[in-house]
Design goal:
With 456 residues, this protein is of the alpha/beta class. It is built from 14 helices and 17 strands. The chain has two domains: 31-60 and 350-454, Alpha-Beta Complex (Aspartate Aminotransferase, domain 1), CATH 3.90.1150.10; 66-346, Type I PLP-dependent aspartate aminotransferase-like (Major domain) (Aspartate Aminotransferase, domain 2, 3-Layer(aba) Sandwich), CATH 3.40.640.10. Strand 7 and strand 8 (198-199) form a beta hairpin. It is globular.
């Protein structure tokens, strides 16, 4: 079948995620043919930097030979088996290897197959735990406005990105949402933050969270947070102290802390996990995306022994956790995760990362000279540029201007796959991105933004 016909069939048959299909009425989708390292190649052989790590999951670059070998070997032995009442070698070794990177208290692993389900599992476990402990009144969850935890009904109930959840408000459950520590648009006073000099406040925004927890302390199961980096809500980075205090206050009120490290896990923030920057231990840790190096779908919710113990009883007591997915701990996906952890170890990924992170975080400042760049923020291998109509007043562009979409199209011409979050342009780079590649990506991003700036 020739490419023209494939493209026609795509439009006839496929409904793509997070895509207004009408945008492609007169335009082709980017037709990707192959990938190597940090690059994707389209059907005509044109090379693109995978600047968003293929939706934040590619860790060591595409097609890493170690991961490929693990998958090939596994395919020879066992392809799939249900995980209720059966087990196999891969998940056992994977948990043992993962444990080396986790605080000792996080010692019980529940597998699923994507980021949303990793969070759903934590929510259900937390709620059932409190029921089984006789704390029947606890059924609420606290989360942040602009937070994102997935697209299932449960995770949407916690989410705070209005465009994603709007049409579903009648069927999502009630949760307590608190204004986030979004420094550039500080919920207390925008003067608390200067984009060039940083924050000058005493974290008054934390009081909003503290108050919400205090007022509802007997009805709350858990606080759910994306640690240090709120991804889909606009790549918002926030102070470590906020996260530390969140752990303290949840402990004080006997509430669970669920850390959603689906996006931040596996080195993306410069440490294996974002929680390692603060040295806190959550009650639940949700992992996916980078778990397999980004090659295959897999997720795990890690929790503490004491939570597991509340479910461990004679069957007749009705304490079983009735949750599971067909592809729970699929052997091939697990082999990919084993391969990725081997790469972390054998290639000293975390120690090599330090220099790259420092370089990217210095380099990103070069874009501040552009008139449309209102704020620059970042952590680890992630940096973001918030575009504004007026740098002085921080006035955003009217949404109908679709600045992000214009940047996306201009980026493609320069071999970048930028997928802006509204007016926030970001780089979410594979951990193996080298200094000279960072230079080139930043330069191309700058040229892309200059082109869009000229059209305004
Ligand atoms: C923080 C966070 N949680 C959960 C999810 C949902 O993951 P998935 O798309 O695999 O369901 C995402 C996806 O972007 C995420 O960034």
């Amino acid at each position: 079948m020739d490419i023209k016909e494939l493209k026609r069939l795509d439009k006839e048959l496929i409904w793509h995620p997070y895509t207004q299909m009408k945008d492609f009425e007169k335009r082709d989708l980017l037709f990707v043919d192959r990938a190597r390292g940090i690059h994707l190649f389209d059907i005509d052989g044109k090379k693109y930097y995978d600047t968003i790590s293929s939706w934040w999951c590619i860790t060591h670059g595409h097609n890493h030979p170690v991961i490929r070998k693990h998958i090939k070997d596994q395919l020879e032995r066992l392809d799939q088996v249900h995980f209720a009442g059966t087990t196999h070698k891969g998940p056992i070794i994977l948990c043992k290897n993962l444990k080396e990177y986790l605080p000792g208290e996080l010692s019980k692993f529940f597998f699923s197959d994507n980021g949303s389900t990793a969070v759903e599992v934590a929510l259900k476990m937390s709620l059932q735990y409190f029921k089984q402990m006789g704390e029947e009144k606890r059924h609420l969850f606290v989360s942040l406005e602009r937070g994102y935890h997935g697209d299932t009904i449960g995770t949407m109930s916690l989410g705070g990105v209005p465009a994603f959840e709007g049409p579903f408000s009648e069927i999502t459950f009630k949760s307590i949402k608190v204004p986030p520590p979004y420094c550039y648009r500080c919920p207390i006073d925008y003067k608390n933050y200067d984009p060039e000099r940083g924050r000058k406040c005493s974290l008054e925004c934390f009081d909003l969270l503290e108050r919400a927890i205090k007022e509802n302390r007997e009805r709350i199961c858990a606080l759910v947070l994306e640690p240090l980096l709120m991804g889909a809500g606009g790549m918002i980075t926030y102070p470590k102290k906020y996260l530390k205090r969140a752990r303290d206050i949840t402990e004080e009120y006997g509430i669970h802390l669920i850390l959603d490290e689906v996006a931040t896990g596996f080195g993306r923030t410069g440490k294996m996990f974002a929680m390692d920057h603060v040295k806190i231990v959550p009650d639940f840790l949700c992992l996916s995306k980078g778990l397999t190096g980004g090659t295959l779908p897999l997720a795990v919710t890690v929790t503490k022994r004491e939570i597991f113990d509340a479910f461990y009883a004679d069957y007749s007591e009705g304490k079983t956790f009735f949750h599971g997915h067909t592809f729970t701990a699929n052997p091939i996906c697990v082999s990919s995760a084993l391969g990725s952890l081997e790469v972390f170890k054998e290639e000293n990924v975390l120690s090599k990362l330090r220099d790259r992170v420092q370089y990217l975080q210095e380099k990103k400042g070069e874009l501040f000279e552009l008139e449309i760049v209102g704020d620059i923020r970042g952590i680890g291998m992630v940096c973001a540029f918030e575009l504004v109509k007026d740098k002085g007043t921080r006035e955003p562009f009217p949404s109908k201007k679709r600045i992000g979409w214009q940047v996306y199209l201009a980026g493609l011409k320069r071999g970048l796959i930028l997928r802006p979050l509204s007016d926030v342009i970001y780089l979410f780079l594979p951990l193996c991105t080298k200094r000279e590649e960072i230079d080139d990506i930043i330069l191309r991003t700058k040229e892309t933004l200059k082109e869009v700036e000229k059209t305004l």
